[in-house]
Amino acid sequence: MRETLASIAIATLTLLAAASSASAAEPDQHGHMHSMDHRMHQPAQSAAPADSLRTVEIEARDTAFNTRAIRVHAGLTLRLVITNKGELRHEFAIGTLVEQRAHRAMMRQMPDMKHADDDMLTLEPGETRVLVHRFGLDTDMTFACNIPGHAEAGMTGRFVLVQP
Questions:
Q1: Most buried in the list 47, 56, 142, 155, measured by CB within 10 Å?
Q2: Is residue 25 part of a domain?
Q3: Domain for residue 3, yes or no?
């Protein structure tokens, strides 16, 4: 009897944990669930453009970004101006390595998905868009184009956290 009650308790706790995890996820404007959940770490949050302290211009070319590393201080807000200089559609996504890998896998399933989220943009050829992000203490923050084959071709980079 005790074993049965213990098994029921474990199963209930497992279901509750799964339900609370699932309810924390929110669909994007297309109704898709994204695995890049920034609540799991505390890198910071998106910020209003007026709060920007520094502007960084980034070019997305067809096989690479024009930079592989961007130095940031914890608490710094960056205004990232991303221009697609290539002939292909590109994405600029901020996240940890784990989040980028998960998003890349999702993009293989839905390669035509477009983004206009706090930490992720899709850019058509010739398009320039702005993403504003405040960085926290997470040292594993990266940027990537997760359109199938693009990150593998070299469209990745990292944010290097430096001490003030």
A1: 155
A2: no
A3: no
Pairing of strands 54-60, 77-84: parallel
Is residue 13 included in any domain, yes or no?
A: no
Question: Any idea what the CATH number is for the domain that residue 118 is in?
Answer: 2.60.40.420
Structure-block tokens of residue 15:
């279901």
Euclidean distance between CA atoms 92 and 84, whole angstroms: 10
- Parent domain of 143: 41-162
DSSP string over the chain: -HHHHHHHHHHHHHHHHHHHHHHH--B-TTS-B-S--GGGS-S--B--GGG--EEEEEEE-SS-BS-SEEEEETT-EEEEEEEE-SSS-EEEEEEEHHHHHHHHHHHHH-TT---EETTEEEE-TT-EEEEEEE--S-S-EEEE--STTTTTTT-EEEEEEE--
Residue at token pair 């710094």: 76
User: pLDDT (tens digit, 0 to 9) for every residue of the chain, 164 residues total?
Assistant: 444 333 333 333 333 333 333 333 333 443 333 334 333 333 344 555 545 589 999 999 989 999 999 999 888 899 999 999 999 999 999 999 999 999 999 999 998 888 877 899 999 999 999 999 999 888 889 999 999 999 999 999 999 998 76
